[in-house]
Amino acid sequence: MEEQSFFDKMMVNLRSTCKYYTGHPKDLGPSKVIHFTSEREFVHLLHQGHPVVVAFTIKCNYTKHLDKVLEEAAAEFYPQIKFMRVECPKYIGFCMTRQKKDYPFIEMFHSPEQASNQGKAVDPNVTKYAVKVLPYNYDVSAYGFREFFKRHNVRSSNHE
């Protein structure tokens, strides 16, 4: 068996350690992107207290690129930030509630806080939450997500 050259060893090391190396796909392990299946699941995810980045998508060429970016960002920011993908043709009702006309688009749902009942008689089994929704308008890349989280003071790792 032939021994690896210095250059080959260096490239293997670079691929395994550098977050920003883009020459070859990274081994991200199992997908951390959650595929939307129901509003109940989405609400349950919000109740866990982590910010949730949601990509509202349709079938188009750009979606393939977006899927790769979501996979990379989800692997980098897991478990502090959750990433979810909604296929809007399958879940028209959920997507229409966002009242957007241009697809795909990304929004971050953040800071679920228990809403006050304001003196009204409500069912004790119902818990209301106020969720801040931020439209994502940065570069669609792991770097763009990192800058977006910094801008909105979202803790994206244990090191911050």
TrEMBL record:
It comes from the Eukaryota. InterPro entries: Thioredoxin-like_sf. This is Thioredoxin superfamily protein.
